[in-house]
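**Fold in tokens:**
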Amino acid sequence: MSKSKLFSIITIACFVSILCIPLGIVLMLYYTQWKKKTKIILSISLTAFYAALLAFLFFVKPAVNSGGISLPFGSNSGYTAFDSGSGAKGSGSSKSSAGKKKSNNQNQPLSERVPKSVQQSQGKGSAKFIYPILFFGFMLFLIIMQNLRSKGKSSYENPYVDTNKYKLPLTPDSKIPMVHFLHLDLNEGEKINFATETIQKGNEGNFVITNQRVALLNLSEEIEIPIEAVVSASETTTTVMTIGTRFEDLEKKYYVFMPENQMKYAMAVLKWTAKNITNNQATGVEK
């Protein structure tokens, strides 16, 4: 089982578990080969779902009030409408004290009259509200970063060959897939091992590797190099391959511009071809 399929299975399991949705989103963005559009849609929808789930768990609570409500404002003080105001001794003083308490309560700020337990619960509620927002912002940040990283990468798909059929690293017994490139006249017994488009601005073309030669077919020129003349091949940048040649004591370097996702296949096939030419002679290509 390939790593891509393994991570895809783990990602789906994380989504199904609900609790591991954040982990599943990270695995999907960085370790699966799903389509970019699918990743964006799933990331946004699952992030919104998970944030809503957190909000529901934090804020939606059943209203239970079995013990009644205790009022903090001294509701039992004072007198009722049935008091005549002249009953037992000391009724006048009780009225005046009740009036003073009432006036004192009215003069106090609202924040002082509200119980501390109520104030603390309100503060906790506002703090909990921040968690889903932070989570949603974090996942949105991951999505943006992933899009920025993949923006610079080439989404080029090789029209001549399915590169997934190259099982790297190539061995002497490796089978080369069929390459459908029709812009090169083949010699007798010649077979194309790899072909891709070149991306040098203003000088686009094709790069071809056969079991006999390397062909660079650009707009400005067409270059053919016998495999025996190739003495080195290196990856100068992620999109530029440098091929060193020696022919009749004349050394020369050629630069091939190709999509980033084709570089590893071109390098592997060129080295493999150089080691497996007809007479099995070494050509000096770097390993």
